[in-house]
Specification:
This protein is an alpha+beta fold and 245 residues long. The chain has ten helices and seven strands.
């Protein structure tokens, strides 16, 4: 459900929201400080706690009226979110909000505020992006995540190499913001040669391949436009995240 620095979680009380810092990995959470403190009232970083920079998606964490928020870039979420007929799926999943694509940050916040009904929806699929859910407790939020993922196993890199369906992924075209900033700038050969600390980039690529393959041969994939990719690759916040990794 998690690839490298993608996705983020948060908890907020009356004064402070703790959100995963930009460029940090959840896998490091038991050994390193990976959460940044944000003032709930102002949205400003609270320098008292640490020098970490909050996720570029901190604003939608603040926007969601629940204390616990989980956001992942999972295989299932990506697969559901990249099909061209994305919006038509909403009738099959009335408890899920289907939020159309926008660049992370203010643009995405506006759509979340517009397209999620927190009285009706329990979770959301963000087009070409990932999964989003929330709860009054972390257990409640995590249960929603588990229910969404269902029986789909979380594949390791070795498992992902065994793609049993031909993928139509057109590299270097990007299907998610993470793909645009971490993978679209390198060749497929370079990706497959990643190892050690960069192995997560190969995992991200193989997850993308698998997500496209899961849709079947007749599915039409909605790729990010050249303008959207350029915007992400030249955004200072994303440049910081790439440098941090």
């Amino acid at each position: 459900m998690v690839q490298g620095p993608g996705g983020n979680t948060s908890f907020k009380d009356k004064k402070t929201m703790w959100v995963k810092a930009s460029g940090t990995k959840l896998s490091d959470s038991l050994t390193n400080e990976i959460f940044a403190g944000v003032n709930v009232a102002t949205g400003d970083v609270d320098e008292i706690f640490n020098q970490l920079r909050p996720s570029i998606e901190k604003d939608f964490h603040l926007l969601i009226p629940f204390p616990y928020v989980i956001h992942t870039h999972s295989l299932r979420a990506i697969s559901m979110g990249i099909e061209s007929n994305f919006g038509s799926k909403s009738s099959k999943f009335p408890h899920l909000a289907f939020v159309t694509y926008a660049r992370p940050g203010n643009d995405l916040c506006k759509l979340i505020a517009k397209e999620i009904d927190f009285k009706k929806h329990s979770s959301a699929i963000l087009q070409n992006h990932g999964f989003l859910t929330w709860g009054e407790t972390m257990e409640e939020a995590y249960k929603k995540l588990q229910n969404f993922e269902g029986e789909i196993s979380v594949p390791g890199t070795a498992d992902l190499l065994q793609i049993d369906t031909i993928s139509k992924l057109l590299h270097p075209k990007a299907i998610t913001p993470d793909y645009a900033v971490f993978l679209s700038t390198v060749t497929e050969e370079e990706i497959m040669n990643f190892s050690d600390k960069n192995l997560w980039k190969k995992q991200m690529y193989l997850v993308a391949q698998k997500a496209v393959a899961l849709l079947g041969e007749n599915a039409e994939i909605n790729y990010l436009s050249n303008e959207e990719v350029f915007s992400l690759q030249n955004w200072e916040s994303e440049k910081f995240r790439v440098a941090a990794n």
